[in-house]
Each structure stands twice: as structure tokens, then as C-alpha cells.
Design a protein that fits this description.
With about 150 residues, the protein is α/β, with parallel strands linked by helices. It has a domain of about 90 residues: Nucleotidyltransferase, domain 5 (2-Layer Sandwich). It has a five-stranded mixed β-sheet, with helices on one face. A two-stranded parallel ribbon has the order 1-7. Strand 5, helix 3 and strand 6 form a beta-alpha-beta unit. Helix 2 crosses helix 3. The relative contact order is 0.16. The C terminus is likely disordered.
Length: about 150
């Protein structure tokens, strides 16, 4: 038997990166679409008011959000309406000295749904419920109004 030494082959030793690039582009597109929806969380349009006292956002305060469809969010995390009472009680147990609940409800929410949320908040032990709204565009908060000179003088 003769043994043949094969020295000339047509085998390529390079890695084909085209499928890798295709997969990476698909993953990039998926993350570009999914990330904003994950980061968005609670979508709402707050009611507007005049002469509102400005207040900084505080991550430690308890906030109940209700979107236009009546979905509940506790501190920007979606929750079921049925779980709201128990979760609010847990939240207030974490900081019993501060039982203030800030409610951010969409301006298109029906009044009855807002009243249901207020009742749940009351049952959970909230001592004070504050409705959050936005300053009407073109108006100024009270501090800015007071700082300006009176035009009649």
C-alpha cells in the first residue's frame, strides 16, 4: 500500500465573521427596540396647575402611579391593582415615620379610578396623600412670582 502525503489542501483556516456580524446586528436592533420600553416604565401625563410649589424628585418617597389605562405602578415598578394594598403596607412599614404617599395619576384617568386608589392608600395606612401635578406652561411657581417686582409700583 502506498501512502500519499497530502500537502496541498483547499481548507481555509480563517473564521467566517459574516454570520457573527449578522447575529450581532440582530441583537443590537432587538436591544434598541426593547430598552426604551423597559426604561420607560410608568407613562403618564400629569394634570397641570398654577402656583404650584416646586419639589425635587426624591427616590426615597413612596409614589403610586396610575396610567391612563388604570395600571398601577409603585415607585415606577408595575404592580397589580390587587396587590397594591399589601405592597403599600410593606412600603410604609419600611419607613413608619413618613407615611406620605405621592400619587401621580394620568390626567385622562377617570375620577372614580383615582378615588379607588385613594381608598386603597387610606386603608394601607397613608397619613397624607399628595396628588402630583405639573406647572402649567407659561406660568411661574410662587417663588419666582414673589421674586419679581410688582409692576404696579
Amino acid at each position: 500500500m502506498e501512502s500519499h502525503d497530502v500537502k496541498d489542501t483547499n481548507v481555509m483556516a480563517d473564521i467566517n465573521v459574516t454570520p457573527l456580524v449578522d447575529v450581532m446586528l440582530v441583537l443590537l436592533i432587538i436591544f434598541m427596540i426593547v430598552t426604551p420600553t423597559i426604561m420607560a416604565g410608568f407613562q403618564h401625563e400629569l394634570p397641570q396647575g398654577v402656583n404650584l410649589k416646586p419639589r425635587e424628585e426624591d427616590e426615597n418617597r413612596t409614589t403610586l402611579g396610575i396610567d391612563r389605562n388604570g395600571n398601577y405602578y409603585l415607585n415606577k415598578r408595575p404592580i397589580r391593582k390587587e396587590d397594591a394594598l399589601a405592597l403599600l403596607k410593606q412600603e410604609f412599614d419600611r419607613h413608619p415615620d413618613d407615611r406620605v404617599l405621592f400619587v401621580k395619576a394620568d390626567r385622562g384617568l377617570k375620577y372614580g379610578l383615582l378615588m379607588e386608589a385613594m381608598e386603597i392608600a387610606k386603608e394601607s395606612g397613608a397619613r397624607m396623600i399628595a396628588a402630583v401635578s405639573e406647572q402649567t406652561p407659561g406660568t411661574e411657581p410662587p417663588e419666582q412670582v414673589a421674586a419679581q417686582p410688582d409692576p404696579r409700583m
